[in-house]
Amino acid sequence: MTDPVSISSSKAEGAMRTIGEVSAELGVKPHILRYWEAQFDMVKPLKRAGGRRYYRAEDVETLRTIDRLLNKEGFTVRGARQYLAGKVVKAPPAPAPVAAPAPDVPAIDLKALRAIRDRLAKALEAA
Fold first, then answer.
1. Are 8 and 38 in contact (CB under 8 A)?
2. Is 2 left (phi over 0), alpha (psi -120 to 50) or beta?
3. What region holds the HTH merR-type domain (predicted)?
């Protein structure tokens, strides 16, 4: 099997690429690329006889951007579509940090909890 790096480096910069070459370059399975074609109108590979796809350089660049948005920056498909259409100007917000417990929580009486634990242990032994 050919190394994906050598595939992309053996072609000229503007050469058309097959779905297998783009798949190997991005590390994404071909069926995902076909799904992205259906979801993103701006990705329109040239289709030859038998349905074989050939991606132009601008298609490959768009797919790189889609991959980055979905798999690295956490966008949804809809959010990535809006971002590429210019309707979103920044990345989605980071998840909110986990809140600390409220300060009005009463202090735990460890001595009382240990006593309860010991009584439960004795009851289980007796059973």
1. no
2. beta
3. 16-86
Q: Which tokens belong to 9?
A: 């480096």
User: In the numeric block, which tokens belong to residue 92?
Assistant: 């989605």
Structural element, H or E, at residue 90: none
pTM: 0.60
CB 48 within 8 A of CB 16: no
Sorted by where each starts, the structural domains of the chain and their CATH numbers stand as 4-84 (1.10.1660.10)
Condensed to tens digits (0 to 9), the pLDDT of residues 60-90 reads 999 999 999 999 988 999 989 998 888 765 6
Token couple for 41: 């109108």
85 closest CA partner among 21, 33, 28, 40: 40
Q: How far apart are CA 35 and CA 33, in angstroms?
A: 5
How does pLDDT run across 106-124, given as a tens digit for each residue?
A: 677 788 889 999 999 999 9
